[in-house]
Amino acid sequence: MSWRENTRAVHRPGKENEVASSLATDAADAQMVGRMRLVLAVSGLLAIFIDPSGLSDVNRFTWFVFSGYVLHCTALYIFALLNKPFSQSKLIHWMDVCWYALIVLFTGGVSSFFFLFFFFAILTSSFRWGFEEGARITVASAVLLAACGLALETEQDLPRLLLRTTFLLTFGYMSARWGESKIELKRRIALLRDVSRLSNPRFGVDHTITSILKKTLAFFKGSSCILVIRDKDSATDSLRTIKEGDLEQSINAVQIRAEAASRLMAFPQDQIVVYNRPLGPTMYILGGSLAYGTVSGKWIKCAEQTSQDMAELLETDAFISVPLSLRKGEGRIYVISHRHRFSKADALFLSHIAEQAFPVIENIELLDRMASEAVSQERKKIALDIHDTAIQPYIGLKMGLSAVRNKAAPDNPLIDDLDKLMSMAAQVIGDLRRYAGTFKNELGQTEPIFLVILRQQAAQVREFYGIDIGVSMEGELNVSDRLTAEVLQVVREGLSNICKHTDAQSGFVKLQCADGWLRIQIENESVGVQPVDFTPRSITERATALGGKTQVKQGAGGGTAVLIEIPV
């Protein structure tokens, strides 16, 4: 019997719920916009049907344009009800603008009150896609309105054309700005929710800090993010750096010298700093350095030379920096950009992120330290218990066998049996001592305790089931004690499945840590038996609880391979 290929992946439940909620909101917005678009189109058609005399140049082409737009809006509304991807496309806003230009053209040009239809396209594009798309729709609407007015130009229409075009541009700019602020507010709320949410304790503090720095860097679209912390108790300075697009990033902090940390801590701890390199020697109004006093609550001009020196040190043209107030020390966060310029609002929001995230991180660190100390004490207790309750009786047994062996005459036929029993007792004593040693601190070990335990598990499988299991590891495993325990249990479940559900005589366990993922591959040899449906339920549930995913597929040698990926 073998495990069958199964490519179903299990993703992080919380993330799936967030994505599903976002998609549901977008679909509801698309339906609402489609419904209002249809109402607008029908109202326009009823307007020319009820009182065509109020419009100039109403002819059969006008009826054709309005009827076509009603059919167009009906089709879009149906697409929105069916949740088709096209119903949320940017192309729809551009189609609306083209329809509105035709309506204005066939209802009197610039004198037509249907030019108000352009506002619908401007509003929906601005609040759906932000400033850039809203600005493009605004400019296109103004250009098409002007073109319709010039096509039917009369001397009396020029002032009206100028006024309506200006009003359209002004309204469009304000709508685009408000739409951008709405989208930005949603992004900020989402980020604050993420950074204030407790991380999975199994991943530890380093994983939590790295995750927050990555999300912060992505939010500000920066080039790199730097965190420097000065611990007063241990008198050490640490540095973490996250760079854009760098997948090979360690989650651990790097110890740096006090001189290097002092250069990064040059700004006062009560100041939030934003710096943009001036565009020219006489254009400091478009750049320079500003500092926000957390005590005074006011923006002031910052020491320009200090900011310029910091920009040279960071090799950037723009950065924002906020202080960290920690229980055991102090620190600063820098977000650096080589392409974008930062604003005062960006610097203040970065301070909000720090205020939300780092108290949570300190709590996680405290819990992590308490748990690690408890585990260490429990390991020592288990090691002593093994020594007192298991090793000592075997030592007494060995000594008793040795005494009996010494009393036996040289020609006693039981001498060989006594020697074998003494040898077995000595072997058991040695195994128990090595096993007890794994519960102590792994100082001085030549390989991680993680691999030691895995090899012991493989040896037990070989001894009891006759299945040869190879164990290999690529890369450095930067995982906490809690995650290590969970991963060991996952591997134990996989080896148990090989023993119970297959006739394989060999297999292997391969671990690899890269790109922020711990990948575990558990594979058994092919025995030429038709595979049956099999899903490792326990392994899948454990991987899902850790935010990972599991899939079962055919291995390179024709065997069955279980692939587990866990974020670290």
How would you characterize this protein structure?
Helix 10 packs antiparallel against helix 11. The chain has 568 residues and is an alpha+beta fold. Residues 1-19 and 441-446 have low confidence and may be disordered. The protein is built from 14 helices and 13 strands. A hairpin with a 5-residue loop joins strand 5 and strand 6 (299-301). Helices cover 56% and strands 16% of the residues.
Low-pLDDT windows of residues: 1-19, 441-446
The percent of residues in helical segments reads 55-70%
Q: SS-based structural class? A: alpha+beta
Radius of gyration: 35 Å
Mean pLDDT: 79
**What is the domain tally?**
3
Task: Please give the largest β-sheet.
Answer: 8 strands, antiparallel
Order of helices and strands: HHHHHHHEEEHEEEHEEHHHEHEEHEE
Question: Taking strands numbered 1, 2, ... along the chain, how are they ordered across the largest sheet?
Answer: 3-2-1-8-7-4-5-6
Q: Specify the number of helices.
A: 14
Globular, elongated, flat, extended or rod-shaped: what is the shape?
A: elongated
Q: CA-to-CA gap between the ends? A: 33 Å
* Number of E-state strands: 13
Q: What fraction strand?
A: 15-25%
What's the quick description here?
The chain has 568 residues and is of the alpha+beta class. It is built from 14 helices and 13 strands.
